[in-house]
Design goal:
The chain is mainly α. The protein has five helices and two strands. It has two domains: 55 residues, Winged helix-like DNA-binding domain superfamily/Winged helix DNA-binding domain (Arc Repressor Mutant, subunit A); 54 residues. It is elongated.
Length: 114
């Protein structure tokens, strides 16, 4: 996704050519993965000759928010109060200012409900 966010619209071949790292990735693997991401709604595509050009359906920040929302929902549904307590403790360990920000977000959410 990083390559697509940085260079969209791109073909699978262009993504494969731009991929870096210790492991070499097969073009067919990249092509299959991009098709799956398209079917899941994470990529949009447009025909360009024999190839497809792909672009992200969401910005990086929108994607990260959706991912975090889904993960938070799963954790809270499975662990409720324990998860909330762990989240607050983790926020305090990372940065005490996050606790203030959390309080602000809670206040904003409650105001929207009223």
């Amino acid at each position: 996704m990083e390559v697509i966010w940085a260079h969209a619209p791109v073909t699978a071949r262009e993504v494969c050519d731009r991929m870096t790292g210790a492991e070499e990735r097969a073009y067919t693997t990249i092509m299959t993965t991009m098709d799956r991401l398209h079917r899941k709604g994470l990529l949009v595509r447009e025909k360009d000759g024999p190839a497809w050009r792909y672009a992200p359906a969401l910005s990086k920040s929108e994607f990260e928010k959706a991912l975090a929302d889904g993960l938070a929902t799963e954790i809270l549904q499975a662990h409720g109060d324990v998860a909330l307590s762990a989240f607050v403790d983790a926020a305090a360990q990372v940065d005490e200012g996050l606790l203030d920000r959390l309080a602000q977000l809670i206040t904003q959410r409650r105001r929207r409900r009223e």
